[in-house]
From TrEMBL:
Entry similarity comment: Belongs to the EXO70 family.
Pfam families reported in the protein's UniProt record: Exo70_C (PF03081)
A GO CC term attached to the entry: exocyst
Biological role stated in the UniProt entry: Component of the exocyst complex.
Domain Exocyst complex subunit Exo70 C-terminal intervals: 2-291
Annotated organism of origin: Arabidopsis thaliana
GO biological processes: exocytosis; protein transport
GO molecular function: phosphatidylinositol-4,5-bisphosphate binding
Name by which UniProt lists this protein: Exocyst subunit Exo70 family protein
Alphabetical keyword list: Exocytosis, Protein transport, Transport
Amino acid sequence: AEKIFPTLDVYQTILQLTPKIDQIFSYDSTAAVRLQANESLEKLSESVNAMMTEFQSSITKESSKSAISGGGVHQLTRYVMNFIVFLADYSDSLATILKESSLPLPEDYFSSSGEENPGSGDRSPMAARLAWLILVLLCKIDAKSRLYNDSALSYLFLANNLHYVVTKVRTSNLRLVLGDDWVANHEVKVNQYLEKYEKMAWGDVIASLPGDSTAGTEAEESLRRFNEAFEEAYKKHKTWVVPDPNLRDEIQASIARKLMPGYTGFYKKHPVGSCNIVRFTPEDLNNYITDLYVGLGRSVPVSKTKKYMVSPSHTTDLK
């Protein structure tokens, strides 16, 4: 399938030279030259279509059964998206080669309303074909997510891979081909995966968070449950990865927003030493959160990087 790029180079060159060929070889005696150029374009076009079909088949037939460690970006996602990004650089040539499309794309695949909007992709057969290749990839990734025994890790895997796809589209010529609505729709899906991940992965921790009004033996019991839940979650998710630093920050910040205010309020009433089982200061908790998703052996000096100060009123509490 990689031969498609030099093939497109030849096609593009002949196509650009066609006006000059027609001009120079305009006589009946040189009609064979014009015919040969046209036949070459036709054969190259057929070859490109065949290679596109072969590339799609290679995605469908990919049969690796090993789950990616930590729920990171699958090598298939990287390979396919890099391939499609390069294809988008030949959009002018592909627009003349891919002339028909009967692909069963969802009606709302390019926009939430299913209507065509200016600046939202040209809906050409070429756009539909590239969108279809991405859809085939995402279906394959969805199937691979089932290789994980942990549902939370499965959703993190889906979020990582779809985020990678969306980033590739947003930062390349694919954005002009598929349109901003396509990007926006799939960003929503990334957030949906993250919400499901967070609910499954951190729901018990958030539910066990002690309130600042909890007191006495009830406070100790509540804090004991929180300690156990947080330490279990941290130990598990310390080995999980989010390769994209911006997405990693987003997840860490979301977790911090749900944990830090409640824990900080509790800590103000029950600082370390006042209760036998207070294990973390708010800063400790912040540091543990910022150490997540970098993968084993890639810890960062969290106490010197960033702190999730949820609001100015909590800043003095965390110092």
